[in-house]
Design brief:
Layout: H1 3-6, H2 19-28, E1 33-37, E2 43-48, H3 49-56, H4 59-63, H5 65-69, H6 73-76, H7 88-91, E3 101-103, H8 108-118, E4 122-126, E5 132-137, H9 138-147
Parallel strand pairs: 3-4
Antiparallel strand pairs: 1-2, 4-5
Helix pairs in contact: 2-3, 8-9
């Protein structure tokens, strides 16, 4: 099997989208992460769910768990909704990271090796021009591997 055969269409975000939208997109789709695309639908970055979560938690709370403990339960449950105008682009690493992508003809072994090496539960599948065609989630990859017929 090739990447094109198991790739599915997933919602994406751009660097201009609010972080709150990114969280909602990920939650609504039960996604393991998000693909950040440019205006031409080319993947700029693939973010794991924990990377998206990291965008929502103020750095002071990440660095000091004792400080996080001082916030009452009612406010602690709503912290991420107070992100204001913070965009995905505002929260991305300063050093550019290559997006986790594979070509349409990548084998499942190539996809699995990339996911394992980069610890990414999501891979963007791109055409020759680098335009997003679909995505492969870890769950989809494992399911495809489990049901693969050795006679294919």
């Amino acid at each position: 099997m090739q990447a094109r055969e198991i790739a599915v269409e997933l919602p994406t975000v751009t660097v201009r989208d609010p972080v709150a939208k990114a969280v909602r997109v990920m939650a609504a789709g039960h996604l393991p992460g998000l693909i950040v695309v440019d205006g031409r639908a080319r993947p700029q970055m693939v973010l794991s769910g924990t990377q998206v979560l990291r965008m929502t938690v103020p750095g002071t709370y990440q660095e000091d768990p004792v400080l996080a403990r001082t916030i009452d339960e009612a406010h602690a449950d709503l912290f991420w909704q107070e992100l204001g105008n913070l965009t995905v682009g505002d929260c991305l690493p300063r050093q550019p990271v290559r997006p986790v992508t594979v070509p349409l003809d990548a084998t499942l072994l190539e996809v699995a090796a990339l996911m394992a090496r980069l610890r990414s539960p999501l891979v963007a599948v791109v055409d020759r021009a680098g335009v997003l065609v679909g995505a492969i989630t870890l769950d989809r990859l494992l399911t495809s591997l489990a049901v693969a017929d050795p006679g294919d």
